[in-house]
Structure formats: structure tokens, C-alpha cells
Specification:
The SWAP complex consists of NPM1, NCL, PARP1 and SWAP70. By secondary structure, the protein is α+β, with helices and mostly antiparallel strands. The chain is 67% helix and 8% strand.
Length: 579
């Protein structure tokens, strides 16, 4: 009854919105009671529609009265077509387009009833694009034409951009305009609309002419059969004016194919509880179609299922509701995501501000670091200048050492001269021994100088070790200085090696001199005279005095103090004479 009430309300809503309630509410209510076979209640009708402000109509409106006094009393024993035609009559004149249509008023009425069947259960009533497509496909198939899906897709896109769906009058204008029935005449379109109307509204599952065998006379008569969800009605002709009988269907009915007999072909049998009906179709295809249609109807009755088109409509509606729920859920999720995104944006903004603050702090720290770096660079520059000064001093020391080395070489040259003089004095044994002592002393001095040079090298090495222990940055900056020091060290080492070689050469010379002295000692007889000729460089070997010996370029103990004084007086005399 709930589904029936909803179907009734859609038609009543059209009639109700087209009328002026103050003047025509009573007329609508009276007509509804008449077509719905509901007993009239004149007292309640007058009470509800009385003219003063105390009437229920001013407080509760028309729907409470409609529900309580009319719809709740509907039993279903009324003519649906007549009910819809009454509502159509009340609303069509006001809402139907004045533009000429390619369909008749009767066809427009059928489209209006189909609209009420397919429209959504919300007000104001509209039919959604999916149901429009379903209806247009049914009409196109009924006309035997091909469905133009691409054309409808373009129409659907244009429709979705402007509105959610069509009203009943817009749907009538769409079908009546012939936009989706081009090339078809008015009669073909009308027959297609009637066929769809019969299926969707009158629940006609199948219809057509067949032969039926009579129960009394056993003769075969052609009848127009109409299959509905629970009944098969047969008429004299397809205008449905002269009804000849009904075949009541239920879950116990069955249909069977029969072999050809009595000159009749394409026979099948419908068995019910009280009667059996023999029917002959026009051909095998029609026979099979009718058998399948009746078997499907009986199966639906056994399962308690609604007719296929109503079940399909319900499935489409449930699918739309599911899609709508999913869309609402998606929108809710999108809103949640948007809210979350906004929160994330706020968090990102906070993080951005924190990053900006951190960047400012980092810039300040970078500024301080650069300032510190500049200070360190200045400090390093000062230290570099200091190191340059130290290097300059070291260079001066190296120059001094070079000067000392030159002096040392000068002394070496003097020693060579002395060697020459010693060669001249080889004939004297005493002078040879004194020269031997001189060479020994020279060796000792060279050893002392070598030790001093080694100590100096150790000092330089220690300074180099201290320099290596400096920071990496200082190492890099002092790398050139260290290389110079290493070069100086190598030069000094080479000088030390050269001195070592010279010392070895001096020893070798000393050995040679010693041998020569020994040879000279054997061959020389008058060594005292030669010593006297040699300006007293070598004295006779005598016991030395206890006084300290003097050291000259010729070595220690070369002269006594008296000899030196005598030589000094001689030099002064020569100097005075030369002046």
C-alpha cells in the first residue's frame, strides 16, 4: 500500500499544484473520492475547507486531510487510468506547452503517466537523465529504430550543466519535439508510446492475437490475449472493448507445449487449478515467446517478485541511491580532506614561519660566522706576517750561516795553504810532529763544528716538528715555509756531508803527510836550519812550558808568548818602515 500511495501522490501533486486551493480544493477532494472509490464524508470536507481562519486548512494544510480522509481509505479497487486521467485533466490545460507537438494529447497523457512512474520520490517531481535514457530507449525500440547513444550523450551533457532533470511538461516537449524520433511518422511514435505505456503502467507483459479452443463448443476462435503479472485476459479485438474472459495465474499454474493435432499447429497448454486452456500461436517463434513469457510470470508469482519493469525500476533507483550515498560520502570525505588540507596548510604556514625564523637565525649565525672568519683571517694574516718575519729572520740567519760558511771555507783555504807550507817543512821531523798535532787539532775543531752544525740541525728539526703540530689551516699556510726550511735543512745536510768528506780528505791528507814526514825524517839531516829558514814556524821539540798555549790559524802551541811578542815587534817595525 505504501508504493500505491506514493504513485497516487505524484498524480495528485500535479493536480494540486495546478489548482487554486481556496476555490477548487473541494472539487479535487470530491473527484478523488469518486475515482478512488472512497466513501464521501461531506461533514469532514466542509469542516476542513470552511472559510474562516479557524479551519484546519489554515493550520495543517491539505496533506493531512488527503492522507486521513482519502488515501488511507483507498483499497486498490479503482481504475488507475481513470484516476490519472482525472488528475491530467486538472493540470494539463495550465501546464501543457502551447507549441504544436508531433504527438497527440492522448500520447502526451501517456507520457505524463509514465513520467509519474519513473520520476524520483521527491518534490518538485523530476525525471533524472538515467530514466530519460531508459524511456527513450524503450520508445525507440518499440518504433524499431536504432538508438542514437552519441546524440543522447550530447543532450545529457547539456542537461546536466543546467539542471538535475526534467519536469513532466519538459519531458512531453522533448518527446513531442521529435528530437529522438526523426524519420518516424506520428502513428509510429504513437504506437510506440502506447506499447511502452501498456508495459510500464498497465503491466502488460505481452499481447497479441492467438487461437483459443472453447470449453463448451470445442471450436477455435481468434482472440486478442493480454498477459499481465497475475492474469491473462482475452478480447475479441485489440481495442479491448469486448472482453471474453480471464485466465487467473498463480504459482500452481504451468504451461506445456503440445504436438500438432486436428490440423492446428504451434499448440501449447495452460493448466490452472480449475481449468485448462489450449491455445494455438501463429508460428513457432510466437509459441515459444508466449510459453517463455507465461513461465516467467508464473515463476515471479511463485517467488513473490514484482513485474520485471517495476523490479528494474527499483534496482535503478537503489543504484542511484547507492551512487548518491557514495557521492555524499565522497563529498564528506572531500570536505574532511579539505579540512585536513586546510589544517595541513596552517601547519605548513606555521612550519614556514618557523623556517623563516630559523633562516633568520641561520643568517644571523652565518653573519657571525663570517665575522668570526674575517677575524680569524685577520689573525691568520697577522700570524702569517709574523711567520714572514720569522722566515726573514731565518733567512738572515741562513745568510749569516752562509757568511760563516764562507769564513769556514776561507779557513779551509788557509788550511790548504798551511798544507803547502807543511809540505815544504816535511824534511823536519819536529815540524812534522807539530803539523801532526796541528792536523789533530784541526780535526777536533771540525768535529766540534760538525757537532754544532748537528745541534743546529736538531734545533731546526725540532722547530719543524713544532710547526707540523700546528692546525690544518696553519699547515696549509706554512707549507711553503716548511718547504723552504726543508730545502735549507737539505742544504745544511749537504754542507755537513761536504764537511764530513772534507774531514775524511783531511785525515787522508794527514796520513799522507805522516808518511811523508816519516820519509822526510829519514832523509833529512839538517832539519834545524830549515826550520830557521821557515821563519820559526816549527821549534825544536822541547819540554813545553807550564804556561797556557796560544791557538793560532796554524793550530794550538804553534808559537810561545815570547815568540809572538818578538813577531809583533817585527811586524810593527816593518809597518812603520813602510809608512
Amino acid at each position: 500500500m505504501v508504493g500505491l500511495k506514493e504513485e497516487l501522490l505524484k498524480s495528485i501533486w500535479h493536480a494540486f499544484t495546478a489548482l487554486d486551493l481556496d476555490r477548487s480544493g473541494k472539487v479535487l477532494s470530491h473527484n478523488l473520492c469518486t475515482v478512488l472509490n472512497v466513501p464521501h464524508d461531506p461533514v469532514a470536507l466542509e469542516e476542513h475547507f470552511r472559510d474562516d481562519d479557524e479551519g484546519p486548512v489554515s493550520n495543517q494544510g491539505y496533506m493531512p486531510y488527503l492522507n486521513k480522509f482519502i488515501l488511507e481509505k483507498v483499497q486498490g479497487n479503482f481504475d488507475k487510468v481513470e484516476f490519472n486521467r482525472m488528475c491530467w485533466t486538472l493540470c494539463a490545460k495550465k501546464n501543457l506547452s502551447k507549441t504544436p507537438l508531433l504527438i497527440s494529447d492522448e500520447d502526451a497523457f501517456k507520457v505524463w503517466v509514465i513520467f509519474n512512474f519513473l520520476s524520483e520520490d521527491k518534490y518538485p517531481l523530476i525525471i533524472v537523465p538515467e530514466e530519460i535514457e531508459y524511456l527513450l530507449k524503450k520508445i525507440t525500440e518499440a518504433m524499431g529504430a536504432g538508438w542514437q547513444q552519441e546524440q543522447f550523450d550530447h543532450y545529457k551533457i547539456a542537461l546536466n550543466t543546467s539542471q538535475e532533470g526534467l519536469s513532466a511538461w519538459e519531458l512531453i516537449d522533448l518527446i513531442g519535439s521529435g528530437q529522438f524520433s526523426k524519420g518516424m511518422d506520428r502513428q509510429t511514435v504513437s504506437m510506440a508510446i502506447s506499447e511502452v505505456f501498456n508495459e510500464l503502467i498497465l503491466d502488460v507483459l505481452k499481447q497479441g492475437y492467438m487461437l483459443k479452443k472453447g470449453h463448451k463448443r470445442k471450436n477455435w476462435m481468434e482472440r486478442w490475449f493480454v498477459l499481465k503479472p497475475n492474469i491473462i485476459s482475452y478480447y475479441v479485438s485489440e481495442d479491448l472493448k469486448d472482453k471474453k474472459g480471464d485466465i487467473i495465474l498463480d504459482g500452481n499454474c504451468c504451461v506445456e507445449a503440445l504436438p500438432d493435432k486436428d490440423g492446428k499447429k504451434c499448440l501449447f497448454l495452460i493448466k490452472c487449478l480449475d481449468k485448462t486452456f489450449e491455445i494455438s500461436a501463429s508460428d513457432k517463434k510466437k509459441k515459444q515467446e508466449w510459453i517463455q513469457a507465461i513461465q516467467s510470470t508464473v515463476s515471479l508469482l511463485r517467488a513473490g517478485s514484482p513485474p520485471p519493469h517495476k523490479e528494474a525500476r527499483q534496482r535503478r533507483k537503489e543504484l542511484r541511491q547507492k551512487l548518491l550515498a557514495e557521492q555524499e560520502e565522497l563529498e564528506r570525505q572531500m570536505k574532511e580532506l579539505q579540512a585536513a588540507n586546510e589544517n595541513k596548510q596552517k601547519e605548513l604556514e606555521t612550519v614556514r614561519k618557523q623556517l623563516e625564523a630559523a633562516a633568520a637565525r641561520a643568517a644571523e649565525e652565518e653573519k657571525k660566522r663570517l665575522q668570526t672568519q674575517v677575524e680569524l683571517q685577520d689573525r691568520f694574516s697577522l700570524e702569517l706576517e709574523r711567520e714572514k718575519m720569522v722566515r726573514q729572520k731565518m733567512e738572515e740567519q741562513v745568510a749569516q750561516k752562509s757568511s760563516e760558511l764562507e769564513q769556514y771555507l776561507q779557513r779551509v783555504r788557509e788550511l790548504e795553504e798551511m798544507y803547502k807550507q807543511l809540505q815544504e817543512a816535511l824534511e823536519d821531523e819536529k815540524q812534522a810532529r807539530q803539523d801532526e798535532e796541528t792536523v789533530r787539532k784541526l780535526q777536533a775543531r771540525l768535529l766540534e763544528e760538525e757537532s754544532a752544525k748537528r745541534a743546529e740541525l736538531e734545533k731546526w728539526h725540532l722547530q719543524q716538528q713544532q710547526t707540523i703540530q700546528m692546525t690544518e689551516a696553519e699547515k696549509q699556510e706554512l707549507e711553503n715555509e716548511r718547504m723552504m726550511k726543508e730545502q735549507a735543512l737539505q742544504v745544511a745536510m749537504q754542507q755537513l756531508k761536504q764537511l764530513e768528506l772534507e774531514r775524511k780528505e783531511a785525515l787522508e791528507q794527514y796520513e799522507e803527510v805522516k808518511k811523508k814526514l816519516e820519509t822526510a825524517a829519514n832523509n833529512t839531516k839538517s832539519w834545524k836550519d830549515k826550520v830557521a829558514h821557515h821563519e820559526g814556524l816549527i821549534r825544536l821539540i822541547e819540554p813545553g812550558s807550564k804556561n797556557p798555549h796560544l791557538i793560532t790559524n796554524w793550530g794550538p802551541a804553534a808559537f810561545t808568548e815570547a815568540e809572538l811578542e818578538e813577531r809583533q815587534r817585527s811586524w810593527k817595525g816593518k809597518k812603520a818602515t813602510s809608512e
